[in-house]
Design goal:
Elements lengths: L2 H4 L4 E4 L4 H12 L5 E8 L2 E9 L14 E2 L4 H15 L26 H5 L20 H10 L16 H14 L3 H13 L15 E2 L24 H7 L11 H5 L9
Parallel strand pairs: 4-5
Antiparallel strand pairs: 1-3, 2-3
Helix pairs in contact: 3-6, 3-7, 5-6
Length: 269
């Protein structure tokens, strides 16, 4: 427990009846070494907790502000799927129809039976890219989507669930693009984020760069090595093929190219 941590004070407001939330929030700094964070809780449409505190840099030189942004990785999938569900609500997409109905060419290599709902439920059999790609390839929308459209599923779609950690965003996002003519980031901003006043971005405008807190990755245990998700796995297995292509680390989110790109399963700010 550092002196800097002891000096952290929460800003914002917290209803008295939710005092334990404030206590837990402060304990995360003072006892657990957190650097900077925000928490908000709404109950019945009322914002009962809205707290922030700490710093947005590991050196603790810049305070975490009310409007600080941070890369939220997989929470981005929720927002991308919401965009597709809005399309379904408006009758632009039927989730029980084949993806190829909306995405010409997607039926290649035995994917005629992949339904839109399979994309939403991680059951499409496309949890990774068959072709090895790099982290920088994630900035190339056409490459990521065309490779997925061309490859065969790794299991019979709809029969099993396998976490589509990065591919879900491109699969869902391309359907949104096909039926609306807008990228998933553009559609989310204009049809969900903007109307709701939600300060969430899939593809960040440079005007917001000063607000971004870099993600501080956890320390690896001694002997843990890097990229440990794929270590020890059978190289022909679905988990290995999913996690190895591409290999990512938290620090890639510091790149301006990452912020600018629409990475709709992992790049939301």
């Amino acid at each position: 427990m550092t002196d800097a941590a002891l000096q952290v004070q929460a800003q914002g407001h917290c209803d008295d009846r939710y005092g334990p939330v404030r206590d837990a929030f402060l304990a995360n700094f003072n006892d657990n070494g957190d650097v900077g964070a925000s928490v908000a809780v709404a109950v019945g449409g009322e914002l009962v907790v809205d707290l922030w505190g700490g710093h947005l840099d590991e050196a603790r030189t810049r305070p975490w502000e009310e409007d600080t942004l941070i890369n939220v990785f997989s929470t981005t999938k929720t927002m991308s799927c919401l965009a597709l569900l809005v399309c379904a609500d408006r009758g632009l997409v039927d989730v029980d129809q084949p993806v190829a109905r909306y995405w010409p060419g997607f039926e290649a290599n035995g994917k005629e039976g992949v339904l839109v709902r399979h994309l939403l439920s991680h059951t499409a059999g496309l949890s990774g890219w068959q072709e090895r790609i790099s982290g920088e390839d994630l900035y190339d929308w056409e490459k990521c989507t065309s490779l997925l459209a061309a490859q065969a599923p790794w299991w019979e779609p709809g029969t099993k669930s396998g976490y589509h950690g990065l591919t879900q965003g491109y699969l869902v996002g391309e359907v949104v693009r096909q039926v609306t003519g807008h990228t998933v980031g553009q559609f989310f901003a204009s049809e969900i984020g903007g109307p709701m006043g939600a300060d969430f971005h899939i593809g960040l405008d440079p005007v917001h760069d000063h607000r971004v807190a870099p993600v501080i990755p956890p320390s690896m245990p001694a002997g843990g090595g890097g990229g440990g998700t794929s270590s020890g796995l059978d190289k022909d297995s679905v988990p290995y093929k999913t996690w190895i292509s591409p290999r990512l680390d938290a620090e890639q989110s510091y790149d301006l190219a990452w912020r600018r790109a629409e990475i709709p399963a992992a790049g939301g700010q």
